[in-house]
Amino acid sequence: MTDTPTSDLQSLRSPLYGVMDRIPGGTMVIPLVLGAVVGTTAPAFLELGSFTTALFATPMPLMALVIFATGMQITPRSIGPDAGTTGAILLGKTIVPGLLVVGLGFAVGLDGLLGISILAMLATFDNSNGGIWLAFTGKYGTKTDRGAYIASAVNDGPFFTMLFIGAAGLGSIPLDAFAAAIIPLLLGIVVGNIDHRWTEIMRPVPAIVIPFFAFGLGTGIDISAILTGGLTGIVLGLLVTPFTGGTTYLAYRFLLRRGRRAGIGVVAGTTAGNSIVTPAIIASADPRFAQYVDVATVQVATAVLISAITAPLLAAWVLRRSGTLSDPDVDGLDHRGEPLPAAAER
Asked: Residue 65 and residue 157: Cα distance in Å, rounded?
């Protein structure tokens, strides 16, 4: 018996996760599309029952687990030192864009503009992709920038969208529906603060679970919605970075007074992968939004992909224009992009 050469073994492997991981937002977008294909062409497969139906056609328990695990990462130790920066990001990336979309909703109605509903806009604009933020600030940001990653944990999920819709009166979000959506997050925060060991154990849960609940979510989408929502989703994705990245840039520049390094704020102009589930959750609380769910879900998924590409590119361009596209720790720059005294002497 002869050993199989390593190169042959590698050629037999199917790099499924590697392909998904190389595409921005791919671990959600690709399973979502595959789920839509299966749900449209082979719905009987999803109705076999038992573990098959539980795993592939019932995404809500998995989504709840991700929200619980996200809550466990929110601790005083993680948010305290960088609370000011975190607050500025939430203001620029979530609160201001959300209020502007709500204002648009009052002006044009829930149908929105250009085939993009108010539901899709809110689900896209009021959250941010923490992975993109960490990757970019890890190279070009300060320790404070990196610590403000917690803003992505706070605005992740459907909570702000539910809050904007309910508080503004654009929809009827019952208090118990909002409570039911936020309880897993709150329980995660409580458990994570009681036992930090659990926090570490649960840290990899989102990366493990997201592809599975994305597939389950996709099974409820007719494939025609991908053809309809994909084109308008590109438009939506192209708007996310200049719009919400721009408002976060203003928060960095005028609230945090970050000077030439305010361009770091632009990289917040992304859409979180978890926001793909937001339209379905909103519709479950208020059936009036059900008509928008299929197309809005695809639009948000497309925006996740587009914004993950445009936000780092635009942020890098802004920093390069200001002469601060560099690692501040290596080049001896302060938080405003000016040389530190020791670096200036060199």
From this structure: 12
Question: What is the DSSP track for 232-267?
Answer: HHHHHHHHHIIIIIHHHHHIIIIIS--GGGGGGGGG
Query: What are the CA-CA distances from residue 231 to residues 130, 183, 235 (Å)?
Result: 25, 35, 7
- Based on its alpha-carbon atoms, the radius of gyration of the chain, rounded to whole angstroms, reads 21
Cα–Cα dist 290/29, whole Å: 21
Q: What is the number of other CB atoms lying within 10 angstroms of the CB of residue 340? A: 13
| Paired tokens of 134 | 């960490």
Q: What angle do CA 30, 35, 36 make, to 5 degrees?
A: 100
Cα 167 from chain centroid? 22
Answer whether 189's CB lies under 8 Å from 71's CB.
Answer: yes
Digitized pLDDT (tens) for each residue of the chain, 346 residues in all: 444 444 444 444 557 777 777 765 677 778 888 888 898 899 899 999 899 998 998 888 888 888 888 888 777 776 666 788 999 999 999 999 999 999 999 999 999 999 999 999 999 999 998 878 888 888 888 888 988 888 888 888 788 999 999 999 998 888 888 888 888 888 998 998 998 888 889 888 888 888 888 888 788 877 777 777 888 999 999 999 999 999 999 999 999 999 999 999 999 999 988 888 899 999 999 999 999 999 999 999 889 888 988 999 999 999 999 988 876 665 555 556 555 555 444 4
pTM for the model stands at 0.79
Count the helix, strand and coil residues of the chain and give each as a percent rounded to the nearest 5. Answer: 75, 0, 25
